[in-house]
Amino acid sequence: MAKTFHMHKARLETLVDGVFAIAMTILVLEIKVPELADGRSSDALLSALGHHASVIGAYFFSFAMLAVFWVWHHRLVEKIRLFDFPLLVCTLTFLALVCFFPFAAALLGRYPLNLAALLVYVPLTGLIILLQTLFFKLAVQRQLLLESVSADEVQATQRRNLRGCAVLFIASIPTALRVHVAWVAVCLALGLLFIWLSRAKAHSGKASA
């Protein structure tokens, strides 16, 4: 009988930390020191920095997003005993998207008003959030949680994950509006669906208490 694949979470979390550290560092490389005709002119430097404002803004916003994803991921992993193959694949896919994040941030910083840049950045962010939600759902379904994790804690974590998905789709409405009004309806419907699912989880948790 073939041995079931399992991986201790400490090994994978070392990889996660390394990937996030590199991705968060690479973000700043898009910010270039401006070239000035007169290196002593403060006005010229401030003007040049103003032209780089969107790139700098994209850096800080994207750094904050990656920080949120990193903390969120570690809070989920704290509840897990080990990784089986489906959970490993989910995590590696999540890391692949994290590695792509600096490119999406660079596009948004250089072309903040370009719809195509938003259509890279926003869906990428959404996929990362959805994968975090799927990650924990798989762990629950495959009984990979620590015995010390209570049912109430599982319910609360799932509600937070669902609310995160709801925020994602509602926050995507301005981008959807630039594509087509039909996509606004889709984003709104999905946002409301995830809000309903999170509330349903809350009610089911109270009913089972």
Task: Describe this entry's structure for a reader.
This protein has 209 residues and is an all-alpha fold. The chain folds into 2 domains: 1-148; 150-209. Helices cover 78% and strands 3% of the residues. It has helices spanning 9-26, 42-51, 53-77, 85-110, 115-141, 151-171, 173-179, 181-208; strands spanning 6-8, 82-84. Strands 1-2 form a two-stranded antiparallel sheet. The radius of gyration is 21 Å and the shape is globular. The relative contact order is 0.10. The model has no long low-confidence stretch (mean pLDDT 88).
Class from helix and strand fractions: mainly alpha
- Count of folded domains: 2
Strand content: under 5%
* Sequence of secondary-structure elements: EHHHEHHHHH
- Write down the overall geometry: globular
Largest sheet: 2 strands, antiparallel
Q: What is the terminal-to-terminal distance?
A: 40 Å
Number of helices: 8
Largest sheet, spatial ordering of strands: 1-2
- Helix residue percentage: over 70%
Query: Rg to the nearest angstrom?
Result: 21 Å
Please write out the topology.
Elements lengths: L5 E3 H18 L15 H10 L1 H25 L4 E3 H26 L4 H27 L9 H21 L1 H7 L1 H28 L1
Helix pairs in contact: 1-3, 1-4, 3-4, 3-5, 4-5, 5-6, 6-8, 7-8
Outline:
Helix content is 78%, strand content 3%. With 209 residues, it is mostly helical.
List keywords for this structure.
two-stranded antiparallel sheet; about 210 residues; 2 strands; 8 helices; about 5% strand; mainly alpha
